[in-house]
Amino acid sequence: MMPELDGAEVCRRLRKDPDAAPMYIIMLTARAEQEQIVEGLQSGADDYITKPFNRQELYARLQAGVRITDLQRQLAAKVKDLEIALMRLRRMQQAQKLESLGQLASGIAHEINTPIQYIHINLQFLRDSWQEIQSFLPGSGSDPDLDFLLREVPRAMDQFLHGVQRVQEIVRAMRDFSHPASEKKVETDINRAIETTITVATNEWKDVAEIVMDLDPNLPTVLALPGELQQALLNIVINAAQSIAEVISDTKKKGTIRVKTTTTGGSIEIRIGDTGTGIREEHQAKIFELFFTTKDIGKGTGQGLAIAYSVVVQQHNGRIWFETDVGKGTTFVIQLPIDGIGTPIGDSYQEQS
Questions:
Q1: CA dist., res. 78 & res. 237, Å (int)
Q2: Tens digits of per-residue pLDDT, 102-161?
Q3: Into which CATH architecture does domain 87-181 fall?
C-alpha cells in the first residue's frame, strides 16, 4: 500500500523484465478484500498471504516457493540444453546437406564447364570473325536491314559472352559455397566469401534491393571455417532482403544492401546494412535467440541470426552486434580475429544508433 509504487506495480515490473532469473513472489499484505487478492495475483504474485499471518504457514509457503523456483531453474536449464542440442543437430544436418550439395555442384561444374568453354571460345571466334566480315560489307545507309545487323549483331555477341561468364560465376560460387565443412580453420579470403554469398543469394535480393559493396582490397586473410562463415553471412543477407521487402511492398521501389569490409586492430570488420524496417526496441534483446522471429508462421524459423551468432562468437571467438534505426534500417557488424583465436570477449552486444 506504499504511495506511487505499490506491491502490485512492483510485481508487474519484476515480471516485465525478460532477463530476470526465475523467481517466486509472495505478497504479504493487510489488503484482504477479494478483489485486492485477485489484483495481486493478476499483477504477477505467485501466492498471497493476508495479515495477521501464521509464521509456520508463511515458512511452509516459502519452502514451497523455493521448491517451485528450483524446478523452474531446472526446467530453464533443460530448455537451454535442448536449444543447444537442436542448434547442433541443425548445423550437423546443414553440414551434411552442404557436403552432398558440394559433391553434386562439383559434378555439375565439371559437366557444365566443358560445353560452356566450347560456347565461350566459339562466341569469341564469331565476334572476331564478324569484325572481319564487316570490312567486306557495303557501308552504312546502303540497306536498312544490313544496317540493323551491323548494329545489333555485335551487341548480341557481347550479351552472349556476358551470359556465359555469368553462368561460370554462378557455378563457381555454388562450388565454393557448398564445399564440405572443414573441422580445421583455414586461411580464408573474406572478400571472396562475401562475393560468393551475394551471388548465391541473388534470388533473395535481386527484386527488392541493389547491392553496394565496398570491400577493402588490402584485407588480410583470416583463419576461419569458410563454410560456416558463409552460412552466417547468407543468413544476414537474406534477413536484410526480407526486411527491405516489407518496406517496399507498397512502393515497389528497390532498397539498398551495403556490404563493407575493413581492418580494425587485430580483427577484420564486416558491415552488412539494409534500408529495411529496423528492429523495434522490444525485439532487440531477443534478436539472436534461437527460434525468436517476428515473421508470420511459415515465413521464418527464428534460426538464421541465432546460427550467425553461434558461428561468429562461439566458433570464431568474434563479435556480432547491430545498429538500428526503426523505419530506416539495420546494420549488422561482425568482427573476426585475424589469427582465428583473438581474446575471449564474452557475449556480443547490441547497440541502437
A1: 32
A2: 566 666 666 777 787 778 788 888 878 887 787 777 766 667 777 788 778 888 888 888
A3: Orthogonal Bundle (1.10)
Cα four-point dihedral sign 89, 95, 98, 104: negative
For 182-353, CATH number out of 3.40.47.10, 3.90.550.10, 3.30.470.10, 3.30.565.10 equals: 3.30.565.10
State the Cα–Cα distance between residues 249 and 244, nearest whole angstrom. Answer: 9
> Scanning the structure block, which residue is given the C-alpha cell 540444453?
81
| DSSP reduced 3-state for 119 | helix
Which is more confident, 55 or 104?
Answer: 55
**Domain residue limits, the chain:** 7-80, 87-181, 182-353
Cis previous bond, 220, omega within 30: no
7-80 carries CATH number 1.10.340.30: no
Residue 198 near residue 239, CB atoms below 8 Å = no
How does DSSP assign 178-223, residue by residue?
A: TSPPPSS-EEE-HHHHHHHHHHHTHHHHTTTEEEEEEE-TTPPPEE
| AA identity, residue 44 | G
Place of cell 557475449: 347
For residue 51 the three cell numbers come to: 495479515
Assess whether pLDDT exceeds 50 at residue 348.
Answer: no
Residue with cell 533473395: 204
| Dihedral class, residue 296 (left if φ above 0, else alpha if ψ from -120 to 50, else beta) | beta
Instruction: Count CA within 13 A, CB hemisphere, residue 119.
Output: 17
CA proximity to 44, closest of 73, 2, 16: 16
